[in-house]
Specification:
elongated, six-stranded mixed β-sheet, alpha+beta, 21 helices, about 50% helix, six-stranded antiparallel β-sheet, about 550 residues
Amino acid sequence: MPESETQAQVAQRRLRLSVPRDDGSLYAVPALENATRLADENHQLLTAATTDIQGRSLSVVRAGARKELCQAARSYTGTWADVPSCSDSTELVYVTGHQPLLFHPGVWVKNFTIGKLAQAPQAIGINLVVDNDTFASAALRIPSGNRDQPSFGSIAFDSGHFARPWEGAEIHDRQLFESFGDRVADNMSSWGIDPLIRELWPLVVERSQDSPQFSDCFTAGRNQLERRWGVNNLELPLSRLCQSESFLWFFSHIVAQLPCFGDVYNTALAEYRTINKVRSQTHPVPELRQQDDWMEAPFWIWRDGSHERRRVYAKQVAAEIHLQDGETVFAKLPLTPEGEACCAVEVLRELPQRGFHLRTRALTTTLFARLCLGDLFLHGIGGAKYDEMTDRIMARFYGIAPPSFMAVSATVLLPLHAHHVQQEDVTRANFMLRDLRHNPEKYLSESQVSEFTPLLEEKHKLLAEANHERDQPLMRKQRRAGRHARIERGRRLREITDTFAAAVAEQTKQIVQERSELEKQLVANQVLSSREFSFSLYSEEKLRPFMEGISV
């Protein structure tokens, strides 16, 4: 593919994305009406891809990956839902993904969007459960306090946790876990809201009887709720996907070509930072580093009994690629840059039995999903932004035009009755206070104007004199001679202005009080107007019509 075509494709990905602000607003770039066409175009592009992936064409790796994906997703989802058997006639696969937490409606909307798209014949929607990300908190953020003095609170669903991958996080305190739904519902009742958690949490608890992992419980509960609302997506944790043959082949190709891949990766990252004026050395991702002869690969490894994900490093040693986590060599792959990956895949298959778990990192998650799994990937706004970098990697490392993706988000606010106030209201109050301080005569009543007519005339005269003097081209000596008169004029102007200010002191006091109230309301609105609250805190009456109203 010519470089000009690649750059044209990449340029199209540089979109200005913004979080929707208005309650009940749906945001999609490109527009949802283009989704099916883009999926068709991506399908044709990738089905014909001939890029060599360690002895197999990309199209062959992709065909195997899609078959494994559908089978694994049906098997996993089938543990709590009735799903049809695998079909060889599936043509379009719509994919999205997120951590298994109880996210806000702006994230949840992606699931409903792919669900609507998958209602077409021979189409399917799959949500990738990103359970290899860090589980950082066993609590849910909730609105606390009252409308005048709200705050962000939290309610715990378990205790005794520390940072670890989601796939390793399990229930410790069952009593606390099972009572979580009622405690959240009681809190939301103080706001006059009957939350979805009442319907969701029994489903979560039911699933916990078979699996103690939060990821499984939250995913099953959410998916069953979606099915009650007419969306029949399949679910698959990344932890399971990363054990598939196709993923291990994908991994083997990257580590076999790591010098080239690392250079492309770091160059694309540097370009992203330059174009987007990013100074941070960790945003959107850190560079791939080199330690002596070891090169970092964009994957995680973690071990049984450890709660820390570690970076993966690779080194070519004769006809083998050695893999280590910064301390221990955990695999020796029979693989060269020119060789097929079949034997390396067999070695990688054995890692889980030895207690090692190979996982994607952010960019390799979407890189694998977009190249090998789906026909259209739906990002949130953040993911869509950093996939500008993924597009460059696809174009330069794999030599193909990057398949299109979509950015989808929404804003649906809890009915917490936010105050009708904007920052502009405080700005206007500040302007009026400055005006009351410097030009208080503008706010005198009619009777006060009559009372202060002589002073008003004097101030007008003094200002006219000052303006006239300022406009005169006087020599320095002349200005020095008039210095005393200017000082006296300024003193008198301040004296008159202070007299007027005292006359309008009550108005000033009132505006100060109004500004204080406006500022308090703005602070309160940070809670009352937050779009980050979990979907489980909303009522069905608020959320369901919005989600069911999505038109594709």
